[in-house]
Amino acid sequence: MYKVTTDAAAQNQPARPQINRRRLLLSAAGGIGALSVAGGARWWAERDGERGPRLWSTTAANGRLVLADGPQQGLYVSGSDGTMRALDPRTGAVRWSRVVDSADAASGYTSGRPATTGDGAVYAATSTGLQALDAATGEVHWQVPAPEWADLPAEQTPIAVGGGAVFAVHGGALHAHDPATGEARWSKASGAGDFLAADGGTVYSGGVGVRAFDARTGEQRWVQESVPGVRSTPVVHQGAVLLTCAGGTPTTTWVCSLEAATGRVRWQRTQHGSGNCPLAPAGGTVCLLSGGHLVGMDTETGEPRWTATVTLGLGRGQSSMTAANGVAYVGTNDDRLFAFDLDTGSPRWQDAPEKLRSDTEFTYVSLAAAGPTVYRSSRTGLHALGALA
Fold this sequence. Notes:
Largest sheet: 5 strands, antiparallel
Helix content: under 10%
Shape: globular
Number of helices: 2
Number of strands: 34
Structural class: mainly beta
Strand order of the largest sheet: 1-25-24-23-22
């Protein structure tokens, strides 16, 4: 099920035993514990380490996941039913819920709309505009109209928080809003891209090329036009802006690293496959998920360190990837979750449901990780695995 390619020494090591699914099914049936789907309920206390330690599961929420300031502060879920929910990351209990938009179940937003956090608030991109909700209570602080967001592509991330402002792309321009009131501070119409990221005093915009703006004034600091069409949200890591771009052919992806301060191209690598998932950097490794391949690259040089083959999902939908605490995670559209060692690409464990789904209903998988805990959201609900910090 796994294939990991590293150096010659690693290839000569004994193969990791395959997971015996029949044994796991019999163990589950033999009384290890029944799966509870009540909000915040634990699944069972002890599990086979090769399958991953399950913490809790709930059907009270699913959608796009956002972690705020570490797992102790809050786990927020933007659902396709138009509801934003705050959950306790340790138990899965719903702290509050707020209807912010109309349900999108019939329009392809099976994941919910984009959201982000910062300054004690949760910011949601609804079909009519940008809303700011109190992170502790869910109370709506303010909202700014953006009617064109009704047709917002599911993969776009039009909002970001950083540098004392909230940034949003709508109406063909990049806007900066006061986080307390929503009041517009500045707007820039030239070159605003579809994907945003903010770090420190700079906001980065990716589309046809990449641009960096001063978060306080909106002044453009640099532009890098040699980067082709950006496919995913830029990630700022260790002084670099990491992103995926359209390759020279439909079956290739360019992974780019730009110097965050100047926009200079640090390195650029071509990888096979179409990778639309945001890159996942942690420490000295940045991970790319492209089809059934997970590639770990050196963040300084872009040199591949290892490649792991992940079994593709059985249904329709979009897989997801994230990395934290020395582990890279991949979630597939049939509710499997793979965990790989971030340094070597070796498999650590695989979690799978007792019955894999193979129907044609579209499934969007969202992952978020902090410390030793990873959260997986799909159409079956929200699940927490690993260990509590």
